[in-house]
Amino acid sequence: MSHASETKAIVFGHVLAYVEERFGKTALEEVRGLSLWGELGADPETLVISTWYPTDAWIRLLLEVCNRFLEGRPEHCADFGRFFLERDLRGVYRIFMMATSNRFLVRSIPGIWSLYNTSGETRVLESSARHGLLCLEGYSHPCPHEWHLIAGATGRAMELAGARKVRTRIEEGLDAEGDRLLLRLDWD
After folding, report:
1. What is the third-level CATH fold of 78-186?
2. Angle, vertex CA 13, rays to CA 100 and CA 112, nearest 5
3. Residue 145's closest CA among 20, 60, 23?
4. Rounded Cα distance, 185 and 187, in Å
5. What stretch of H or E contains 133?
6. Structural domain spans, the chain
7. CA pair distance 133, 109, nearest whole angstrom
8. What is the distance between the alpha carbons of residues 167 and 185, in angstroms, rounded to a whole number?
9. Mean pLDDT, range 9-32, rounded to an integer
10. Which of 93, 178, 186 is nearest to 137 (CA)?
Protein backbone atom coordinates (compact mmCIF):
# COMPACT_ATOMS: atom_id res chain seq x y z
CA MET A 1 0.00 0.00 0.00
CA SER A 2 1.11 3.50 -0.72
CA HIS A 3 1.82 6.30 1.75
CA ALA A 4 0.54 8.81 -0.79
CA SER A 5 -2.68 9.49 1.09
CA GLU A 6 -3.26 10.38 4.69
CA THR A 7 -6.03 10.03 7.24
CA LYS A 8 -6.69 12.30 10.21
CA ALA A 9 -5.55 10.86 13.56
CA ILE A 10 -8.97 11.43 15.11
CA VAL A 11 -10.22 8.20 13.50
CA PHE A 12 -7.38 6.26 15.14
CA GLY A 13 -8.52 7.69 18.46
CA HIS A 14 -12.11 6.68 17.72
CA VAL A 15 -10.96 3.09 17.20
CA LEU A 16 -9.31 3.08 20.61
CA ALA A 17 -12.44 4.51 22.25
CA TYR A 18 -14.66 2.02 20.41
CA VAL A 19 -12.57 -0.96 21.48
CA GLU A 20 -12.50 0.19 25.11
CA GLU A 21 -16.24 0.90 25.26
CA ARG A 22 -17.39 -2.24 23.44
CA PHE A 23 -14.75 -4.79 24.52
CA GLY A 24 -13.10 -3.45 27.68
CA LYS A 25 -9.69 -2.43 28.99
CA THR A 26 -7.96 -5.72 28.16
CA ALA A 27 -8.97 -5.39 24.52
CA LEU A 28 -7.85 -1.76 24.50
CA GLU A 29 -4.41 -2.74 25.80
CA GLU A 30 -4.21 -5.38 23.08
CA VAL A 31 -4.83 -2.74 20.40
CA ARG A 32 -2.43 -0.29 22.03
CA GLY A 33 0.22 -3.02 21.85
CA LEU A 34 0.05 -3.41 18.06
CA SER A 35 3.33 -2.83 16.22
CA LEU A 36 1.53 -0.32 14.02
CA TRP A 37 1.97 2.42 16.63
CA GLY A 38 5.75 2.08 16.71
CA GLU A 39 5.90 2.11 12.92
CA LEU A 40 3.96 5.39 12.96
CA GLY A 41 6.08 6.84 15.73
CA ALA A 42 2.82 7.44 17.59
CA ASP A 43 1.82 6.86 21.16
CA PRO A 44 -1.79 5.60 21.17
CA GLU A 45 -2.32 7.16 24.59
CA THR A 46 -1.39 10.69 23.49
CA LEU A 47 -2.61 10.98 19.89
CA VAL A 48 -2.91 14.52 18.59
CA ILE A 49 -6.19 14.31 16.71
CA SER A 50 -5.22 16.94 14.14
CA THR A 51 -2.17 14.94 13.00
CA TRP A 52 -2.25 13.12 9.67
CA TYR A 53 -1.05 9.51 9.34
CA PRO A 54 -0.64 7.29 6.28
CA THR A 55 -3.97 5.88 5.16
CA ASP A 56 -2.48 2.41 4.86
CA ALA A 57 -1.91 2.48 8.64
CA TRP A 58 -5.55 3.45 9.16
CA ILE A 59 -6.75 0.56 7.00
CA ARG A 60 -4.39 -1.85 8.79
CA LEU A 61 -5.80 -0.75 12.15
CA LEU A 62 -9.39 -1.04 10.94
CA LEU A 63 -8.78 -4.55 9.58
CA GLU A 64 -6.87 -5.64 12.68
CA VAL A 65 -9.65 -4.55 15.02
CA CYS A 66 -12.33 -6.04 12.78
CA ASN A 67 -10.50 -9.37 12.63
CA ARG A 68 -9.88 -9.49 16.38
CA PHE A 69 -13.23 -8.29 17.66
CA LEU A 70 -15.83 -8.27 14.86
CA GLU A 71 -15.41 -11.74 13.34
CA GLY A 72 -13.55 -10.20 10.39
CA ARG A 73 -16.84 -9.33 8.73
CA PRO A 74 -16.85 -5.97 6.90
CA GLU A 75 -20.56 -5.36 7.54
CA HIS A 76 -19.85 -5.26 11.29
CA CYS A 77 -17.83 -2.08 10.66
CA ALA A 78 -21.11 -0.18 10.20
CA ASP A 79 -21.30 -0.11 14.01
CA PHE A 80 -17.85 1.54 14.00
CA GLY A 81 -19.22 4.23 11.71
CA ARG A 82 -22.21 4.94 13.94
CA PHE A 83 -19.91 5.12 16.97
CA PHE A 84 -17.44 7.44 15.19
CA LEU A 85 -20.20 9.81 14.20
CA GLU A 86 -21.54 9.94 17.75
CA ARG A 87 -18.06 10.83 19.02
CA ASP A 88 -17.53 13.51 16.38
CA LEU A 89 -20.87 15.19 16.83
CA ARG A 90 -20.98 16.69 20.25
CA GLY A 91 -22.31 19.99 21.50
CA VAL A 92 -23.02 22.58 18.85
CA TYR A 93 -22.43 20.13 15.99
CA ARG A 94 -25.19 17.87 17.29
CA ILE A 95 -27.56 20.84 17.50
CA PHE A 96 -26.65 21.75 13.91
CA MET A 97 -27.42 18.18 12.80
CA MET A 98 -30.83 18.26 14.43
CA ALA A 99 -31.62 21.61 12.79
CA THR A 100 -30.61 20.71 9.24
CA SER A 101 -32.63 18.99 6.54
CA ASN A 102 -31.70 15.57 5.30
CA ARG A 103 -31.36 16.84 1.76
CA PHE A 104 -28.91 19.54 2.91
CA LEU A 105 -26.98 16.93 4.89
CA VAL A 106 -26.61 14.66 1.85
CA ARG A 107 -25.31 17.59 -0.17
CA SER A 108 -22.78 18.41 2.60
CA ILE A 109 -21.14 14.99 2.72
CA PRO A 110 -18.50 15.68 0.02
CA GLY A 111 -16.98 18.41 2.18
CA ILE A 112 -16.97 16.20 5.25
CA TRP A 113 -14.91 13.45 3.57
CA SER A 114 -12.02 15.81 2.90
CA LEU A 115 -11.81 16.70 6.60
CA TYR A 116 -10.60 13.16 7.32
CA ASN A 117 -8.88 11.98 4.12
CA THR A 118 -6.46 13.43 1.59
CA SER A 119 -7.48 11.11 -1.24
CA GLY A 120 -10.77 10.39 -2.90
CA GLU A 121 -13.58 12.60 -4.05
CA THR A 122 -17.17 12.30 -2.92
CA ARG A 123 -19.99 13.45 -5.16
CA VAL A 124 -23.74 13.56 -4.71
CA LEU A 125 -25.35 11.83 -7.68
CA GLU A 126 -28.93 12.07 -6.41
CA SER A 127 -30.57 14.10 -3.70
CA SER A 128 -34.28 14.34 -3.00
CA ALA A 129 -36.61 14.62 -0.02
CA ARG A 130 -36.34 10.87 0.77
CA HIS A 131 -33.35 9.56 -1.16
CA GLY A 132 -29.69 10.18 -1.82
CA LEU A 133 -26.96 8.50 -3.83
CA LEU A 134 -23.32 9.20 -3.00
CA CYS A 135 -20.26 8.25 -5.01
CA LEU A 136 -16.73 8.04 -3.59
CA GLU A 137 -14.04 7.61 -6.24
CA GLY A 138 -10.29 7.86 -6.34
CA TYR A 139 -9.72 6.77 -2.77
CA SER A 140 -6.24 5.31 -2.53
CA HIS A 141 -7.22 2.40 -0.27
CA PRO A 142 -10.60 0.98 -1.29
CA CYS A 143 -11.77 -1.44 1.37
CA PRO A 144 -15.19 -3.03 2.01
CA HIS A 145 -14.63 -2.57 5.75
CA GLU A 146 -14.31 1.17 5.32
CA TRP A 147 -17.26 1.27 2.94
CA HIS A 148 -19.43 -0.27 5.68
CA LEU A 149 -18.00 2.16 8.22
CA ILE A 150 -18.98 5.05 5.92
CA ALA A 151 -22.47 3.57 5.46
CA GLY A 152 -22.93 3.31 9.24
CA ALA A 153 -21.73 6.87 9.87
CA THR A 154 -23.85 8.31 7.08
CA GLY A 155 -26.94 6.47 8.24
CA ARG A 156 -26.47 7.73 11.80
CA ALA A 157 -25.98 11.29 10.53
CA MET A 158 -29.29 11.03 8.68
CA GLU A 159 -31.00 9.82 11.87
CA LEU A 160 -29.61 12.74 13.84
CA ALA A 161 -30.93 15.09 11.16
CA GLY A 162 -34.42 13.67 11.75
CA ALA A 163 -34.70 10.93 9.14
CA ARG A 164 -36.71 7.90 10.18
CA LYS A 165 -36.21 4.31 9.13
CA VAL A 166 -32.89 5.08 7.45
CA ARG A 167 -31.67 2.42 5.08
CA THR A 168 -28.16 2.44 3.62
CA ARG A 169 -27.19 0.12 0.81
CA ILE A 170 -23.81 -0.23 -0.81
CA GLU A 171 -24.62 -0.62 -4.50
CA GLU A 172 -21.08 -0.83 -5.77
CA GLY A 173 -17.68 -1.33 -4.18
CA LEU A 174 -17.86 -4.56 -2.19
CA ASP A 175 -15.78 -6.66 -4.56
CA ALA A 176 -12.06 -6.93 -3.90
CA GLU A 177 -11.27 -4.62 -6.79
CA GLY A 178 -13.98 -2.07 -5.96
CA ASP A 179 -12.32 1.34 -6.12
CA ARG A 180 -15.62 3.17 -6.28
CA LEU A 181 -18.28 3.27 -3.59
CA LEU A 182 -21.89 3.92 -4.49
CA LEU A 183 -23.94 4.40 -1.35
CA ARG A 184 -27.73 4.56 -1.60
CA LEU A 185 -29.61 6.30 1.22
CA ASP A 186 -33.35 6.00 1.72
CA TRP A 187 -35.43 7.25 4.62
CA ASP A 188 -39.03 7.94 5.61
Report:
1. H-NOX domain (3.90.1520)
2. 30
3. 60
4. 7
5. strand 131-137
6. 6-75, 78-186
7. 11
8. 6
9. 95
10. 178
pLDDT digits (tens, 9 = 90+) for 141-154: 888 899 999 999 99
Report the C-alpha gap between 5 and 31 in whole angstroms: 23
What does the CA dihedral 53, 96, 122, 8 come to, rounded to 10 degrees? Answer: 0
What's the rounded Cα separation, in Å, for the pair 135 and 45?
35
Exposed / middle / buried, residue 38 (Cβ in 10 Å: 0-12, 13-18, 19+)? exposed
Task: Specify the pTM.
Answer: 0.88
Contact, 116 vs 52, CB < 8 A?
no
Going edge to edge, which strands form the sheet with 121-127? 121-127, 131-137, 180-186, 167-172
Cβ atoms of 140 and 4 within 8 Å: the answer is yes
Cα separations in angstroms, 22 against 19, 127, 149, 157: 5, 34, 16, 21
Cβ-contact 168, 185 below 8 angstroms: yes
**Mean per-residue pLDDT over the chain, rounded:** 88
List strand residue ranges (DSSP E) for 62-157, in order.
121-127, 131-137
**Phi–psi pair at 83, nearest 5 degrees:** -60, -45
